[in-house]
Design goal:
2 copies of one chain form a homodimer.
Chain A (H helix, E strand, L loop, with lengths): L5 H17 L6 H8 L3 H7 L3 H21 L1 H4 L3 H17 L6 H7 L6 H27 L9 H22 L2 H13 L5
Helix pairs in contact in A: 1-4, 2-3, 4-8, 6-8, 6-9, 7-8, 8-9, 9-10
The structure holds a DNA duplex (18 and 18 nucleotides).
Chain lengths: 192, 192
DNA sequence: GTCTATATACCGATAGAC
DNA sequence: GTCTATCGGTATATAGAC
Protein backbone atom coordinates (compact mmCIF):
# COMPACT_ATOMS: atom_id res chain seq x y z
CA UNK A 1 0.00 0.00 0.00
CA UNK A 2 1.09 3.55 -0.58
CA UNK A 3 2.14 5.61 2.38
CA UNK A 4 4.80 8.25 1.72
CA UNK A 5 7.67 6.30 0.24
CA UNK A 6 9.31 8.14 -2.62
CA UNK A 7 8.51 5.49 -5.21
CA UNK A 8 4.87 5.34 -4.18
CA UNK A 9 4.58 9.06 -4.54
CA UNK A 10 6.26 9.08 -7.93
CA UNK A 11 3.90 6.35 -9.16
CA UNK A 12 0.88 8.14 -7.82
CA UNK A 13 1.88 11.45 -9.33
CA UNK A 14 2.56 10.00 -12.76
CA UNK A 15 -0.59 7.88 -12.69
CA UNK A 16 -2.67 10.92 -11.86
CA UNK A 17 -1.15 12.74 -14.81
CA UNK A 18 -1.75 9.83 -17.20
CA UNK A 19 -5.29 9.32 -15.95
CA UNK A 20 -6.18 12.94 -16.65
CA UNK A 21 -4.44 12.89 -20.02
CA UNK A 22 -5.38 9.46 -21.39
CA UNK A 23 -8.33 8.28 -19.31
CA UNK A 24 -8.52 5.35 -16.89
CA UNK A 25 -8.60 2.79 -19.69
CA UNK A 26 -5.96 4.64 -21.67
CA UNK A 27 -2.95 4.07 -19.45
CA UNK A 28 -1.30 0.90 -18.15
CA UNK A 29 1.26 -0.37 -15.66
CA UNK A 30 3.56 -0.62 -18.66
CA UNK A 31 3.30 3.13 -19.29
CA UNK A 32 4.13 3.80 -15.66
CA UNK A 33 7.05 1.36 -15.44
CA UNK A 34 8.63 2.63 -18.64
CA UNK A 35 8.54 6.28 -17.68
CA UNK A 36 9.66 5.63 -14.10
CA UNK A 37 12.46 3.29 -15.12
CA UNK A 38 11.21 0.42 -12.97
CA UNK A 39 9.45 -2.87 -13.76
CA UNK A 40 5.71 -3.35 -13.59
CA UNK A 41 6.14 -5.85 -10.75
CA UNK A 42 7.55 -3.04 -8.62
CA UNK A 43 4.42 -1.01 -9.21
CA UNK A 44 2.25 -3.95 -8.22
CA UNK A 45 4.21 -4.10 -4.98
CA UNK A 46 3.08 -0.56 -4.10
CA UNK A 47 -0.38 -0.79 -5.69
CA UNK A 48 -1.44 -4.44 -5.95
CA UNK A 49 -4.28 -3.71 -8.39
CA UNK A 50 -5.12 -0.91 -10.75
CA UNK A 51 -8.20 -0.31 -8.65
CA UNK A 52 -5.97 0.39 -5.63
CA UNK A 53 -4.01 2.88 -7.67
CA UNK A 54 -7.05 4.59 -9.16
CA UNK A 55 -8.77 4.81 -5.81
CA UNK A 56 -5.77 6.46 -4.19
CA UNK A 57 -5.68 9.06 -6.94
CA UNK A 58 -9.26 10.04 -6.21
CA UNK A 59 -8.80 9.97 -2.44
CA UNK A 60 -5.66 12.05 -2.72
CA UNK A 61 -7.58 14.69 -4.66
CA UNK A 62 -10.41 14.59 -2.15
CA UNK A 63 -8.01 15.10 0.74
CA UNK A 64 -6.22 17.93 -1.07
CA UNK A 65 -9.54 19.67 -1.70
CA UNK A 66 -10.95 19.21 1.79
CA UNK A 67 -7.67 20.23 3.39
CA UNK A 68 -7.75 23.52 1.51
CA UNK A 69 -11.40 24.15 2.31
CA UNK A 70 -11.04 23.40 5.99
CA UNK A 71 -7.90 25.45 6.42
CA UNK A 72 -8.91 28.43 8.62
CA UNK A 73 -6.60 30.70 6.62
CA UNK A 74 -8.54 29.97 3.47
CA UNK A 75 -11.98 30.01 5.06
CA UNK A 76 -11.56 33.66 5.98
CA UNK A 77 -10.41 34.70 2.52
CA UNK A 78 -12.71 37.07 0.58
CA UNK A 79 -15.29 35.21 -1.51
CA UNK A 80 -13.77 36.34 -4.77
CA UNK A 81 -10.34 35.02 -3.82
CA UNK A 82 -11.85 31.66 -2.96
CA UNK A 83 -13.54 31.57 -6.35
CA UNK A 84 -10.25 32.55 -7.98
CA UNK A 85 -8.60 29.60 -6.23
CA UNK A 86 -11.21 27.21 -7.62
CA UNK A 87 -10.76 28.58 -11.12
CA UNK A 88 -6.98 28.41 -10.86
CA UNK A 89 -7.25 24.77 -9.89
CA UNK A 90 -8.80 24.05 -13.28
CA UNK A 91 -6.40 26.32 -15.11
CA UNK A 92 -3.53 24.45 -13.48
CA UNK A 93 -4.64 21.25 -15.20
CA UNK A 94 -4.37 23.00 -18.53
CA UNK A 95 -0.87 24.27 -17.78
CA UNK A 96 0.34 20.85 -16.63
CA UNK A 97 -0.23 19.49 -20.13
CA UNK A 98 -3.83 19.76 -21.22
CA UNK A 99 -5.17 17.55 -18.49
CA UNK A 100 -8.92 17.41 -18.08
CA UNK A 101 -10.17 17.59 -14.51
CA UNK A 102 -10.28 14.36 -12.54
CA UNK A 103 -14.04 14.40 -12.28
CA UNK A 104 -14.52 14.82 -16.03
CA UNK A 105 -12.01 12.09 -16.83
CA UNK A 106 -13.64 9.61 -14.46
CA UNK A 107 -17.20 10.60 -15.38
CA UNK A 108 -16.76 9.63 -19.05
CA UNK A 109 -15.19 6.30 -18.01
CA UNK A 110 -17.62 5.94 -15.13
CA UNK A 111 -19.40 2.72 -16.17
CA UNK A 112 -16.08 0.92 -16.67
CA UNK A 113 -14.77 1.81 -13.20
CA UNK A 114 -14.65 -0.48 -10.17
CA UNK A 115 -17.34 0.33 -7.61
CA UNK A 116 -14.88 1.73 -5.07
CA UNK A 117 -13.74 4.36 -7.57
CA UNK A 118 -17.29 5.19 -8.59
CA UNK A 119 -18.17 5.87 -4.98
CA UNK A 120 -15.06 7.93 -4.33
CA UNK A 121 -15.54 10.22 -7.33
CA UNK A 122 -19.21 10.59 -6.41
CA UNK A 123 -18.13 11.79 -2.98
CA UNK A 124 -15.60 14.18 -4.46
CA UNK A 125 -18.15 15.75 -6.79
CA UNK A 126 -20.68 16.02 -3.98
CA UNK A 127 -18.21 17.82 -1.73
CA UNK A 128 -17.14 20.14 -4.54
CA UNK A 129 -20.71 21.00 -5.42
CA UNK A 130 -21.63 21.66 -1.81
CA UNK A 131 -18.66 23.92 -1.19
CA UNK A 132 -19.22 25.90 -4.39
CA UNK A 133 -22.90 26.42 -3.65
CA UNK A 134 -22.09 27.84 -0.24
CA UNK A 135 -19.43 30.08 -1.74
CA UNK A 136 -21.87 31.53 -4.26
CA UNK A 137 -24.56 31.95 -1.65
CA UNK A 138 -22.16 33.96 0.49
CA UNK A 139 -21.01 35.95 -2.49
CA UNK A 140 -24.51 36.98 -3.43
CA UNK A 141 -25.60 37.76 0.12
CA UNK A 142 -22.59 39.98 0.65
CA UNK A 143 -23.16 41.76 -2.65
CA UNK A 144 -19.82 40.74 -4.15
CA UNK A 145 -21.46 38.91 -7.04
CA UNK A 146 -24.85 38.67 -8.64
CA UNK A 147 -26.84 35.91 -10.34
CA UNK A 148 -30.40 34.66 -10.66
CA UNK A 149 -31.87 31.44 -9.32
CA UNK A 150 -30.70 29.07 -6.63
CA UNK A 151 -27.06 29.18 -5.60
CA UNK A 152 -27.01 25.40 -5.75
CA UNK A 153 -28.05 25.39 -9.41
CA UNK A 154 -25.64 28.15 -10.29
CA UNK A 155 -22.86 26.16 -8.62
CA UNK A 156 -23.69 23.08 -10.67
CA UNK A 157 -23.74 25.25 -13.76
CA UNK A 158 -20.32 26.77 -13.13
CA UNK A 159 -18.74 23.43 -12.26
CA UNK A 160 -20.17 21.93 -15.45
CA UNK A 161 -18.75 24.82 -17.40
CA UNK A 162 -15.27 24.42 -15.93
CA UNK A 163 -15.37 20.67 -16.52
CA UNK A 164 -16.42 21.04 -20.14
CA UNK A 165 -14.04 23.91 -20.75
CA UNK A 166 -10.89 21.85 -20.25
CA UNK A 167 -12.27 19.33 -22.74
CA UNK A 168 -13.23 21.88 -25.39
CA UNK A 169 -9.81 23.48 -24.97
CA UNK A 170 -8.25 20.31 -26.37
CA UNK A 171 -10.34 20.63 -29.53
CA UNK A 172 -10.64 24.37 -30.03
CA UNK A 173 -7.43 25.66 -28.49
CA UNK A 174 -6.24 26.44 -24.99
CA UNK A 175 -7.03 30.14 -25.35
CA UNK A 176 -10.72 29.17 -25.29
CA UNK A 177 -10.51 28.23 -21.65
CA UNK A 178 -9.68 31.74 -20.50
CA UNK A 179 -12.46 33.14 -22.66
CA UNK A 180 -14.91 30.80 -20.99
CA UNK A 181 -13.65 31.71 -17.53
CA UNK A 182 -13.97 35.41 -18.39
CA UNK A 183 -17.57 34.76 -19.44
CA UNK A 184 -18.32 33.02 -16.13
CA UNK A 185 -17.02 36.06 -14.24
CA UNK A 186 -18.93 38.41 -16.52
CA UNK A 187 -22.13 36.49 -15.85
CA UNK A 188 -21.47 36.85 -12.11
CA UNK A 189 -20.94 40.59 -12.53
CA UNK A 190 -17.31 40.11 -11.53
CA UNK A 191 -14.03 40.73 -13.29
CA UNK A 192 -11.34 38.08 -13.19
CA UNK B 1 -16.85 -0.17 -45.58
CA UNK B 2 -20.20 0.86 -44.23
CA UNK B 3 -22.83 2.08 -46.68
CA UNK B 4 -26.42 1.49 -45.69
CA UNK B 5 -26.63 -2.26 -45.20
CA UNK B 6 -28.69 -3.24 -42.17
CA UNK B 7 -25.80 -4.88 -40.34
CA UNK B 8 -23.54 -1.89 -40.86
CA UNK B 9 -26.17 0.39 -39.45
CA UNK B 10 -26.77 -1.85 -36.44
CA UNK B 11 -23.06 -1.97 -35.72
CA UNK B 12 -22.71 1.77 -36.08
CA UNK B 13 -25.66 2.49 -33.84
CA UNK B 14 -24.50 0.14 -31.09
CA UNK B 15 -20.91 1.35 -31.33
CA UNK B 16 -22.05 4.94 -30.98
CA UNK B 17 -23.99 4.00 -27.87
CA UNK B 18 -21.07 2.11 -26.33
CA UNK B 19 -18.62 4.86 -27.17
CA UNK B 20 -20.73 7.44 -25.36
CA UNK B 21 -21.33 5.11 -22.42
CA UNK B 22 -17.92 3.49 -21.95
CA UNK B 23 -15.45 5.65 -23.86
CA UNK B 24 -13.41 4.79 -26.94
CA UNK B 25 -11.00 2.56 -24.99
CA UNK B 26 -13.83 1.06 -22.95
CA UNK B 27 -15.61 -0.95 -25.64
CA UNK B 28 -14.39 -3.69 -27.97
CA UNK B 29 -15.36 -5.67 -31.07
CA UNK B 30 -16.21 -8.43 -28.61
CA UNK B 31 -18.83 -6.24 -26.93
CA UNK B 32 -20.35 -5.46 -30.30
CA UNK B 33 -20.36 -9.04 -31.58
CA UNK B 34 -21.88 -10.43 -28.41
CA UNK B 35 -24.75 -7.98 -28.29
CA UNK B 36 -25.44 -8.20 -32.02
CA UNK B 37 -25.24 -11.99 -32.10
CA UNK B 38 -22.54 -12.10 -34.76
CA UNK B 39 -18.82 -12.86 -34.70
CA UNK B 40 -16.13 -10.22 -34.45
CA UNK B 41 -14.88 -11.19 -37.95
CA UNK B 42 -18.22 -10.06 -39.37
CA UNK B 43 -17.72 -6.65 -37.80
CA UNK B 44 -14.24 -6.40 -39.28
CA UNK B 45 -15.80 -7.08 -42.67
CA UNK B 46 -17.92 -3.92 -42.34
CA UNK B 47 -15.37 -1.85 -40.44
CA UNK B 48 -11.86 -3.21 -41.06
CA UNK B 49 -10.31 -1.33 -38.14
CA UNK B 50 -11.59 0.30 -34.99
CA UNK B 51 -10.39 3.58 -36.41
CA UNK B 52 -12.75 3.14 -39.40
CA UNK B 53 -15.61 2.51 -37.02
CA UNK B 54 -14.81 5.39 -34.71
CA UNK B 55 -14.35 7.77 -37.60
CA UNK B 56 -17.72 6.90 -39.09
CA UNK B 57 -19.40 7.55 -35.75
CA UNK B 58 -18.00 11.06 -35.68
CA UNK B 59 -18.74 11.74 -39.35
CA UNK B 60 -22.29 10.45 -38.91
CA UNK B 61 -22.82 12.89 -36.07
CA UNK B 62 -21.32 15.72 -38.10
CA UNK B 63 -23.62 14.99 -41.03
CA UNK B 64 -26.64 14.76 -38.75
CA UNK B 65 -25.80 18.11 -37.21
CA UNK B 66 -25.05 19.91 -40.47
CA UNK B 67 -28.11 18.45 -42.15
CA UNK B 68 -30.32 19.87 -39.42
CA UNK B 69 -28.60 23.26 -39.49
CA UNK B 70 -28.76 23.58 -43.27
CA UNK B 71 -32.38 22.49 -43.52
CA UNK B 72 -34.33 25.61 -44.60
CA UNK B 73 -37.25 24.58 -42.39
CA UNK B 74 -35.01 24.76 -39.35
CA UNK B 75 -33.10 27.87 -40.37
CA UNK B 76 -36.30 29.92 -40.26
CA UNK B 77 -37.34 28.65 -36.83
CA UNK B 78 -37.45 31.22 -34.01
CA UNK B 79 -34.14 31.55 -32.22
CA UNK B 80 -35.50 30.12 -29.00
CA UNK B 81 -36.77 27.00 -30.76
CA UNK B 82 -33.37 26.45 -32.29
CA UNK B 83 -31.77 26.75 -28.86
CA UNK B 84 -34.38 24.33 -27.52
CA UNK B 85 -33.39 21.86 -30.22
CA UNK B 86 -29.73 22.10 -29.22
CA UNK B 87 -30.57 21.56 -25.59
CA UNK B 88 -32.86 18.63 -26.38
CA UNK B 89 -30.04 17.01 -28.30
CA UNK B 90 -28.05 16.84 -25.08
CA UNK B 91 -31.05 15.78 -23.03
CA UNK B 92 -31.65 12.98 -25.48
CA UNK B 93 -28.26 11.47 -24.62
CA UNK B 94 -29.31 11.34 -21.00
CA UNK B 95 -32.59 9.60 -21.81
CA UNK B 96 -30.88 7.03 -24.05
CA UNK B 97 -28.99 5.68 -21.03
CA UNK B 98 -26.80 8.28 -19.42
CA UNK B 99 -24.64 8.82 -22.46
CA UNK B 100 -22.23 11.72 -22.36
CA UNK B 101 -22.07 13.77 -25.54
CA UNK B 102 -19.79 12.55 -28.31
CA UNK B 103 -17.48 15.53 -28.03
CA UNK B 104 -17.02 15.08 -24.29
CA UNK B 105 -16.39 11.36 -24.64
CA UNK B 106 -13.78 11.84 -27.36
CA UNK B 107 -12.19 14.87 -25.72
CA UNK B 108 -11.22 12.96 -22.57
CA UNK B 109 -9.81 10.12 -24.71
CA UNK B 110 -8.38 12.59 -27.22
CA UNK B 111 -4.67 11.79 -26.89
CA UNK B 112 -5.29 8.08 -27.37
CA UNK B 113 -7.28 8.55 -30.60
CA UNK B 114 -5.99 7.98 -34.15
CA UNK B 115 -5.29 11.25 -35.97
CA UNK B 116 -8.25 10.89 -38.33
CA UNK B 117 -10.64 10.83 -35.38
CA UNK B 118 -8.90 13.72 -33.69
CA UNK B 119 -9.36 15.82 -36.81
CA UNK B 120 -12.98 14.81 -37.25
CA UNK B 121 -14.01 15.65 -33.70
CA UNK B 122 -12.13 18.94 -33.97
CA UNK B 123 -14.19 19.78 -37.05
CA UNK B 124 -17.41 18.82 -35.30
CA UNK B 125 -16.69 21.00 -32.30
CA UNK B 126 -15.71 23.88 -34.55
CA UNK B 127 -18.94 23.68 -36.52
CA UNK B 128 -20.99 23.41 -33.34
CA UNK B 129 -19.30 26.39 -31.78
CA UNK B 130 -19.71 28.50 -34.89
CA UNK B 131 -23.41 27.70 -35.25
CA UNK B 132 -24.12 28.37 -31.58
CA UNK B 133 -22.32 31.70 -31.62
CA UNK B 134 -24.39 32.88 -34.58
CA UNK B 135 -27.57 31.71 -32.88
CA UNK B 136 -26.79 33.68 -29.73
CA UNK B 137 -25.79 36.73 -31.71
CA UNK B 138 -29.14 36.66 -33.53
CA UNK B 139 -30.97 36.08 -30.28
CA UNK B 140 -29.43 39.08 -28.61
CA UNK B 141 -29.83 41.39 -31.61
CA UNK B 142 -33.50 40.50 -31.91
CA UNK B 143 -34.05 41.04 -28.19
CA UNK B 144 -35.14 37.46 -27.52
CA UNK B 145 -32.34 36.86 -25.08
CA UNK B 146 -29.79 38.86 -23.14
CA UNK B 147 -26.21 38.32 -22.05
CA UNK B 148 -22.98 40.25 -21.61
CA UNK B 149 -19.78 39.89 -23.59
CA UNK B 150 -19.06 38.37 -26.97
CA UNK B 151 -21.55 35.93 -28.42
CA UNK B 152 -18.68 33.66 -29.34
CA UNK B 153 -17.51 33.43 -25.74
CA UNK B 154 -21.02 32.93 -24.45
CA UNK B 155 -21.47 30.12 -26.98
CA UNK B 156 -18.31 28.40 -25.78
CA UNK B 157 -19.51 28.83 -22.23
CA UNK B 158 -22.91 27.26 -22.88
CA UNK B 159 -21.46 24.36 -24.86
CA UNK B 160 -18.98 23.69 -22.06
CA UNK B 161 -21.82 23.73 -19.58
CA UNK B 162 -23.90 21.24 -21.57
CA UNK B 163 -20.88 18.99 -22.05
CA UNK B 164 -20.03 18.97 -18.37
CA UNK B 165 -23.63 18.65 -17.31
CA UNK B 166 -24.09 15.17 -18.80
CA UNK B 167 -20.97 14.09 -16.95
CA UNK B 168 -21.93 15.55 -13.58
CA UNK B 169 -25.37 13.97 -14.01
CA UNK B 170 -23.73 10.55 -13.77
CA UNK B 171 -22.23 11.44 -10.40
CA UNK B 172 -24.83 13.70 -8.82
CA UNK B 173 -28.06 12.40 -10.37
CA UNK B 174 -29.89 12.95 -13.64
CA UNK B 175 -32.17 15.59 -12.16
CA UNK B 176 -29.12 17.86 -11.96
CA UNK B 177 -29.03 18.18 -15.73
CA UNK B 178 -32.39 19.90 -15.92
CA UNK B 179 -31.42 22.22 -13.10
CA UNK B 180 -28.32 23.23 -15.01
CA UNK B 181 -30.29 23.77 -18.21
CA UNK B 182 -32.79 25.90 -16.31
CA UNK B 183 -29.89 27.98 -15.00
CA UNK B 184 -28.56 28.49 -18.54
CA UNK B 185 -31.94 29.78 -19.65
CA UNK B 186 -32.24 31.94 -16.56
CA UNK B 187 -28.86 33.50 -17.29
CA UNK B 188 -30.06 34.25 -20.83
CA UNK B 189 -33.18 35.89 -19.45
CA UNK B 190 -35.24 33.11 -21.04
CA UNK B 191 -37.54 30.45 -19.64
CA UNK B 192 -37.21 26.90 -20.85
C1' DG C 1 -21.63 -11.64 -45.77
C1' DT C 2 -20.71 -14.65 -42.01
C1' DC C 3 -18.27 -18.27 -40.14
C1' DT C 4 -14.03 -20.95 -37.66
C1' DA C 5 -9.59 -20.57 -36.46
C1' DT C 6 -5.69 -18.22 -35.44
C1' DA C 7 -1.89 -14.61 -35.29
C1' DT C 8 0.05 -11.09 -32.54
C1' DA C 9 0.14 -7.84 -29.12
C1' DC C 10 -0.89 -5.98 -24.76
C1' DC C 11 -3.21 -6.06 -20.47
C1' DG C 12 -3.37 -6.81 -15.20
C1' DA C 13 -1.46 -9.74 -12.04
C1' DT C 14 1.58 -13.28 -9.46
C1' DA C 15 5.63 -16.48 -8.03
C1' DG C 16 9.93 -16.63 -6.44
C1' DA C 17 14.99 -15.19 -6.57
C1' DC C 18 17.91 -11.55 -4.93
C1' DG D 1 11.81 -3.14 -2.56
C1' DT D 2 13.00 -4.54 -7.09
C1' DC D 3 14.03 -7.94 -10.21
C1' DT D 4 13.11 -11.97 -13.97
C1' DA D 5 9.86 -14.80 -15.74
C1' DT D 6 5.48 -16.10 -16.76
C1' DC D 7 0.36 -17.02 -16.51
C1' DG D 8 -4.26 -16.21 -18.19
C1' DG D 9 -7.20 -13.10 -20.32
C1' DT D 10 -8.55 -10.04 -23.77
C1' DA D 11 -7.63 -6.77 -27.44
C1' DT D 12 -7.36 -5.77 -32.63
C1' DA D 13 -6.91 -7.93 -36.75
C1' DT D 14 -6.48 -11.52 -40.62
C1' DA D 15 -6.76 -16.04 -43.52
C1' DG D 16 -9.53 -18.99 -45.63
C1' DA D 17 -13.79 -22.11 -45.75
C1' DC D 18 -18.70 -21.79 -46.68
Amino acid sequence: MASRGTTSRRILELAESLLQRLGYNGFSYHHLSQELGIKNAAIHYHFPTKEDLGLQIVEQTRKRFNKWCNNPENRILPVKQQLDWLVQTYHYNLKLGNRVCLIGALATDYYTLPASMQNAVKELSYELQHWTARLLENGRESGVMDFKGRSNHKALCILSTLTGSLQLARLLGNERHQQIVDQIYLDLNLTY
